[in-house]
Design brief:
alpha+beta, Glutaredoxin, 2 domains, four-stranded mixed beta sheet, 10 helices, 59% helix
């Protein structure tokens, strides 16, 4: 049994999407960051960095969403994280790309426009939002080009890179970032959203989102 400790920010959501798509048996334990639950002694005993998500499995703990997703996929021996070294590296490259590039800027927008006001952390920084929109716009063009001749990011089949990327892209409509300029990306995004695993994760976290941000 895997136990995932997390909040409903993208680092936890992408991990939940991947675990659900892998079909592994797991429990989700909500850590309310707005109440400082990640600073408790019990939580700090699991991770020295005091951040979510954290995975418990077989008496050991792992932090960092990428490490967690790759570990669980490896344990499950899932074809969603292929055994072939080159194919696996191609999955890794897209996971890294979304984390470091478009995902970074979409997450910045989500923080500025959604989380910051909800948590009482001050006013939205409009200059930072403009910068984030500019970088995200440029970087999503690379994904659009890549999808010109394929339906999925790697090897013409679903991989853990898809649910991973979804956690970043689903922020776009929430922050008013228009994806209309990327029709192939939009079609790919729609295919991911249609996965039953996505609906299950969203239903699982919805009560926690509503309790923190309101209905």
């Amino acid at each position: 049994m895997f136990v995932l400790h997390g909040f409903f920010t993208q680092n936890t959501l992408k991990t939940l999407y991947v675990l659900e798509q892998l079909g592994v048996d797991y429990k989700f334990r909500f850590v309310d960051l707005t109440k400082g639950e990640n600073r408790s002694e019990a939580f700090r005993a699991m991770t020295p960095v005091g951040k979510v998500p954290v995975l418990e499995h077989d008496g050991a703990c792992l932090f960092e969403s990428g490490a967690i997703c790759r570990y669980v996929a490896g344990v499950a021996q899932s074809p969603l994280y292929p055994a072939d070294k080159l194919d696996r590296a191609r999955v890794d490259q897209w996971m890294t790309f979304f984390t470091c590039h478009p995902g970074r800027w979409l997450t910045d927008l989500y923080f500025e426009k959604i989380m910051k006001p909800a948590a009482g952390l001050g006013e939205t920084n409009t200059d930072r939002c403009e910068e984030s929109e500019r970088f995200a716009t440029a970087q999503l063009k690379a994904v659009e080009r890549h999808l010109e001749s394929r339906n999925w990011l790697v090897n013409e089949t679903l991989s853990i890179a898809e649910p991973w990327a979804l956690a970043y892209l689903e922020q776009a409509p929430q922050v008013g970032f228009d994806l209309a300029a990327y029709p192939r990306l939009q079609a790919w995004y729609a295919r991911i959203e249609e996965l039953p695993a996505v609906a299950r994760v969203r239903a699982r976290v919805r009560p926690f989102v509503e309790s923190v941000l309101g209905g």
